[in-house]
Amino acid sequence: MPIDNQLIVYVVLALLVALVISFLATPVVKTFAYKVGAIDVPKDNRRMHKVPIPRLGGLAIFIGFMVSVLLFVPITPEMRSILLGAVIIVVLGVVDDIMALPAMLKFVVQIIAALIPALGGVRILAFSNPNIFSDNLYWVLDGLSIPITVLWIVGITNSVNLIDGLDGLANGVSAISATTMLLIALLISEAQVALVMAALVGACVGFMPYNLNPAKMFMGDTGATFLGYILATMSIQGLFKYYALISFVVPFLILGLPIFDTAFAFIRRIAHGQSPMHADRSHIHHRLIDMGLSQKQAVATLYVISAILGLSAVVLTTSGEQRAMLFFVALCIVAVVAARVVFPKEVKEELHEELEELREHGRHGEHAPRSDAPADSPDPSAQEMEPPAQKDEET
Predict the structure, then answer these.
(1) Parts of the chain with a pLDDT under 70
(2) Residue pLDDT, tens place only, 228-252
(3) Rg for the chain (alpha carbons), in Å?
(4) Are the CB atoms for 240 and 124 separated by under 8 Å?
(5) Please, which residues bridge with residue 139 across strands?
(6) What's the rounded Cα separation, in Å, for the pair 344 and 79?
(7) Crossing angle of helices 246-254/220-235, nearest 10°?
(8) How wide is the angle at C-alpha 366 spanned by C-alphas 364 and 371, nearest 5°?
(9) What is the DSSP letter of 375?
(10) Ranges of each domain in the chain
(11) DSSP assignment of 154-211
């Protein structure tokens, strides 16, 4: 399907502006974080860093995003309500990063922030019916529209925050999810969603050099909740409003990693008789670390999983030869990344072992060594000491 070239230009500009501003704003925000005492001190075993690291990096992401959006995105009433809610989420995050706030207070403020776009027209009006045998193609939510919308926004906001446990994890996964939504928005000609997602991708990428392991700065609750909020609201604005089959599946694929991790965490805690909000060290990234992976390997593994889910979502919005070709390319990319990035050391060791086995097999398969045999050939005296039966088998 054709894509407007002018839209592509604006998308690239929106991404670059957000990237540059986010990158340049991070050192300024870092200095501010030290002044106000927004420092993450490793005081329990859930934290993977060993030295105090400044938080508030999400403020740089927010600044880059907002400047780009205000420059390139048409501000409709719905968009205005989303941005107003985002400001509330960021203010809440900044205060929480400076002085820890009670969980219940944060939850109430998040509900208020989610209500603003829900009451401003950003709503989940219907779900496509997952029952393919039903005569009803979709479920109209009617009076449940606002409660389900608020639940979705608050849930995704907190799920992204929950996976923010390793250097660069939440930022990278959010960038991958935003890139997926950007591609889908381009395919279905949703210019506003494409521009907003381009701004979000750029802001995340601009902050990434400071956040990758070993991190120089964390984005804190300011960044994690902001990213979750924007992904949640824009998924409603760009995906849920379609009554096609993809409206039910695609948002859950795009945000599949944080959704699964949050759902699994809640089920695990309830099964152990704990509060669903009780913090623990059993998230997916913690389990990967406990399996022996380094931080970089664990993060890369989760990047690959998120990318697979995102590519699957894009495939569902394409058809015919495009779908087959894209899926083939996706599998190739995933295979290369998994082999060369996630476990580079393990792959090299495995290849070394295979080569050694081939060499040993070649040595045992040779006849009696010649005078001009290579230096690594078996010792002739060792050959003579072998039993006759062994020699017969080899000859």
Answers:
(1) 1-3, 42-50, 128-135, 137, 239-248, 268-269, 272, 274-283, 285-286, 290, 319-355, 357-358, 361-395
(2) 999 999 988 876 665 444 556 777 7
(3) 26
(4) yes
(5) 127
(6) 44
(7) 170
(8) 125
(9) T
(10) 5-253
(11) HHHHHHHHHTTTSTTHHHHHHHHHHHHHHHHHHHTT-HHHHHHHHHHHHHHHHHHHHH
- One-letter identity of residue 189: S
- Return the closest-CA partner of residue 65 out of 96, 87, 33, 81: 87
pLDDT at 195: 95
pLDDT at 45: 54
Q: How would you label 162-176 residue by residue, b for 16+ Cβ within 10 Å and e otherwise? A: bbbbbbbbbbbbbbb
* Cβ atoms of 80 and 248 closer than 8 Å: no
* Among the listed residues 26, 86, 54, 62, the one whose alpha carbon sits nearest the alpha carbon of residue 220: 54
From CA 231, how far away is CA 237, in angstroms rounded? 10
Quote the tokens at residue 79: 């968009």
Report d(CA 198, CA 311) in Å as an integer: 17
Stated length of the chain: 395
CB of 119 closer than 8 Å to CB of 96 = no
The model carries a pTM of 0.76
The token duo for 322 is 């495009």
- Provide the 3-class DSSP secondary structure of residue 75: coil
Residue owning tokens 């870092």: 30
What pLDDT does 393 receive? 40
Token representation of residue 123: 């709503």
- Which tokens go with 127? 């779900």
- Please name which of 215, 123, 118 lies closest in space to residue 171, comparing C-alpha atoms: 215
Q: Which residue has the tokens 């230009």?
A: 9
Q: Which residue has the tokens 């909740």?
A: 225
Q: How high is the pLDDT of residue 333?
A: 67
**Which of 387, 1, 3, 49 lies closest to 220, judged by CA?**
49
Nearest alpha-carbon partner for 151 in 224, 259, 254, 58: 259
> Is 185:239 a contact under the CB 8 Å cutoff?
no
Q: Which of 168, 252, 160 is nearest to 210 (CA)?
A: 168
What secondary structure does DSSP assign to 107-161, as a single string? HHHHHHHHHHHHHTT----EEE-S-TTSS-SEEE-GGGHHHHHHHHHHHHHHHHH
- Sequence-distant (6+) residues with CB within 8 A of 373 are 366
Q: Residue 319's pLDDT is what?
A: 59
Q: How far, in Å, CA of 301 to CA of 9, rounded?
A: 32
